[in-house]
Amino acid sequence: MAEQMTGGARTPLGIVLPRLSDDYDSEREYKYLEIVLDGGDSFISKKPSKGIPTSNKEFWQRFTDVSASGGGISVETDPTVPAWAKQSQKPEYAYSEITNTPILSDVATSGDYNDLDNKPTIPTLPTLAEVATTGNYSDLNDKPAIPSTPAEVSAYPASFVQYSTTDLTPGVSPLTTGALYLVYE
User: CA 58 from chain center: how many Å?
Assistant: First the structure.
């Protein structure tokens, strides 16, 4: 549906061009400017309708009249179609035989990338580590050593003195040089 802009607001204009539909069907709803075929003739709707025959001139306008033209206009009877186009065997010409044509580059007729002029240089991709393409940890190089049991974890310095809550006196801080220990109360 066409729209018109007026002061920043859109105004629907409705259907502004005819739309070609199939054969007329009395069960179908037709909108304004729909073209249907009925009995070899075509009709254009003047307003929305459903179940109203194309013979009703209030709703339908005859668009083409095949019966009045003795069978209608065809390629064979149309005076604007040149004689050579009416022949069943059309002549064939190579592009080079046709005059007044633009000069085309080779790629225009071959479609081959190698016929292009001024092809861009396509850089090669760097070699990726295998883990980048597989996502598997086992493909990772220089893996860190991950201890298998907590006993192997050395998260504290060797000078660390461990206290249990039973070793501590409430309210007394066992702060020693370079280490801070928590007091549980």
Answer: 44
